[in-house]
Amino acid sequence: MSQQQPRFVSAHGGHSGQFCLHARDTLAEMVEEYARQGFSWVGLTEHMPPTEDAFLYPDEREAGLTARYLQDQFSRYVDTARQLQQEYRDRLTLFVGMETEYYPGSLDFAKQLRTEFGLDYLVGSVHHVDGRCFDFSLADYQDAFDQHGGYEPLYCAYFDAQLAMINELQPEVVGHFDLIRLHDHDYPTRLQCPAVEQRIRRNLHRISELGLILDYNARALFKGAQEPYVSVPVLHHALQLGIDLLPGDDSHGVDSVGAHLATVIALLQEAGYHCQWRCPAAPQ
Fold this sequence. Notes:
globular; 284 residues; alpha/beta; 12% strand; single chain; two-stranded antiparallel sheet; TIM Barrel
């Protein structure tokens, strides 16, 4: 008799077009799709709003939005998510979370938001290095590459920023750990650079010490990458340290709800992970 397959969950439940310009569909439509697919639980993780206009994403700036508007919108997101949490309580367990940022002033603001809105948990992510966004577009990544003078110093700066975020926020889930490889076709070589590998091991040890969970993020596969975040060497070291992992679809619309989760769960099983999901938040 075959073992029962692990239930679908998503600790990095992604973003809706209702509250994020680079996503699509309403949050309710996305939650309904999670329920239709039979997810056991899902964490809703819209982006935290920017602290000031200087940290608007490019599409937000082009749309004429302001940090104040997005801060008000975040309040509407939490209200909507809490309503859905109650409406779906008999069909799907929802947790109301937030994906954080890392740039000057963001960590204190993230802690403030967590307290003010009573968020169930945080996904701690890094999309900026030295205050510069690197993952919104290839051009942004190239700018960050140029600013740091190459891949290795860029990777080192990224993992240093990630450690600072981990130590300061201690988020229940560390989001897409090796996102910095996003536009680097030769990232396996980069991950083996001694200075980079040392930082990866250092950060994973800190995650282990704090008992945090690692996001095993399927979004990379949806965008055509060969493997999820995290890559195989990072996954193996995390498993050696006994770090818990959780699948995340990092969905950006109904079309990516649950996308490639079966694949990432199979990869975890092949790597020897038990796939007994640890919830990042207390039951509601």
